[in-house]
Design brief:
Blueprint (H helix, E strand, L loop, with lengths): L4 E5 L6 H12 L9 E5 L5 H11 L3 E5 L16 H6 L4 E4 L2 H6 L4 H13 L3 E6 L3 H5 L3 H12 L11 E5 L13 H19 L1 H6 L2 E4 L7 H5 L6 E4 L6 H8 L4
Parallel strand pairs: 1-2, 1-8, 2-3, 3-4, 4-5, 5-6, 6-7, 7-8
The structure holds phosphoenolpyruvate.
């Protein structure tokens, strides 16, 4: 039985003051952390403040960077390394988000490098995969997603795969208000798990959590979470409001 995992991706929406206010509001909500794992991904400049606030309150909330450099250190102006975000209090990083793939032209090989860099530097990984609208309409959605999983996890062995969470985020559903139907999402999640099973065997594949992302809201989360292979949600817009994020986290009651 995989424990549900609800992760908020705050994107480039809040400065450190706004992030601090939001995490304080989330921390004031009653959450049964034995039943659900919770995480937040603030911007780089808010990581330290947010992780310190969580630590002071003693709640088991994961903190992720939204991205890291593939490089360890050096002359890479504007980049932020895995070691830097770890030192700032992050325990995880999101990688391969569609906004990184589409806007910043990050390809599968670079993302695979980043996955390795993150794991080498003690960060868990939330690896995002997902097809574009064109790919879905031309019937290659599952092939595209399975390919991204294989490439993103290339050379990640059995010793490290337990530190990876997958997130299936159809690009056409992110920030658009369009959600994949639970059946469509489940179909792709099942195919991702089959690919994981090919790579790591069925026992390990059963343990890996696969989150769904794309306009998840309090009113559609339960139907998604009822599906066998949907283990949680990576949430953008609805994670910016503590009340709606709390409803997502407490989707089970
Ligand atoms: C995301 O960016 O990961 C996301 C799923 O955004 P939204 O929930 O706003 O669609």
């Amino acid at each position: 039985m995989r424990k549900p995992y609800i992760y908020g991706n705050w994107k480039m929406n809040l400065d450190m003051h706004g992030s601090s206010d939001l995490i304080s509001s989330i921390l004031s909500v009653k959450i049964d952390y034995t039943k659900v794992d919770v995480g937040v991904a603030p911007d780089f400049s808010s990581l330290y403040k947010v992780s310190q606030t969580i630590k002071q309150m003693g709640y088991p909330i994961s903190v992720a960077a939204q991205n890291i450099s593939a490089e360890e250190k050096g002359a890479f102006t504007g980049d932020v390394s895995a070691a830097m975000v770890f030192a700032a209090g992050a325990d995880s990083t999101i990688l391969g988000h569609s906004e990184r793939r589409m806007i910043f032209a990050e390809g599968d090989e670079l993302i695979n490098q980043k996955v390795k860099t993150a794991l080498r530097n003690n960060l868990d990984v939330i690896l995002c995969v997902g097809e574009t609208l064109d790919e879905r309409e031309s019937g290659v959605a599952a092939d595209r997603v399975v390919y991204q999983v294989g490439m993103g996890l290339k050379d990640i062995g059995m010793d490290r795969i337990n530190r990876v969470t997958l997130a299936y985020e159809p690009v056409w559903a992110i920030g658009t208000g369009k959600t994949a139907t639970p059946a469509d999402a489940e179909d792709i999640h099942g195919k991702i798990r089959t690919q994981l099973s090919k790579m790591y065997g069925p026992v390990v594949a059963e343990k890996i959590r696969i989150l769904y992302g794309g306009s998840v809201k309090p009113d559609n989360v339960s139907a998604l979470m009822m599906r066998e292979n949907i283990d949680g949600a990576l949430v953008g817009g609805a994670s910016l409001d503590a009340t709606s994020f709390a409803k997502l986290v407490n989707f089970n009651g």
